[in-house]
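Suppose a classmate hands you a notebook page containing two proteins, each written out with its sequence and a corresponding row of structure tokens. How would you begin to make sense of it? This section walks through that situation. The first entry is reproduced here exactly as it would appear on such a page.
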Amino acid sequence: MAKSEEPDENELVPEPEIVPLDVFEEEESEINDSDEDALWMSFINNAVGQISSEPDVLSGINPLPSFCIKEENINNVTADNSAWFPFLNK
């Protein structure tokens, strides 16, 4: 080992930072269980309202979830219409 690579015995090692244990304690919730349920229900109602207010992208066609559309596209792939045909089953 070269002399510059050897650790210096006089080098000070910094003391590790001490984290107080109360940092990991959970505080009592100010919201009771019935308020939490009402809060979750309002989140769900907002989400349903947003989803139902979105325009249909597939106008004129039965709206299907996108995973069904992708699955249908994969099922219709044959060797003559896709360069990726040999890799679909792997």
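The notebook's second entry, a different protein, reads as follows.
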Amino acid sequence: MRPSLPVLLSLLLAAFFAIVHAETDMAAAPSPSLATYLPPPLTPASTPVFLPPPPTPESTPVSPEIPPTPAWTLVSSPSPPPAASTPVSSPPPAPPAWTPVVDVNVQSIRQVGQFAVRIHALHLGVDLVFVKVVSCQTQPSDGGYIYQLVVAVTGSGAKSPQYNAVVWGILGTMRWELRSFKAK
């Protein structure tokens, strides 16, 4: 037996109103935070000490009235031990030295130079054409290398025949950044 259309519409309408009222009811009351369920934090210098309950009158002889002891009291913890003498740390090591690239006609070095020229030309919208890498030196950095290049260029957008370029990248990946490109 299939429910009729009026029954389905009334059920859908009822569900809709229940959802709307639930959202407005929830929005009216702020939700409790975790802080409402946690006891106040203890200070580092104090810890709770739980004392046993006071003895019952049947087990102790009658004596003058003693004020009731609280269920727990705060007792200062002992002071931390003195810090061991820390050795004086040396400054961080200097970054590795720049290594000159002997053969600048290696394909990977040429590609770094081409990358620098293309990115600069695209960024400024000028006509620059890569000619060659004149010189290059590298330095390891952040899992890749920083390349300091002098590249020769031509084109109508060239302000100078040579440019200094600084590129960071990881060979074999798409992670490359042109950090500087200036006319020499």
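A careful reader of the second entry would note: Residues 26-37 have pLDDT under 50 and may be disordered.
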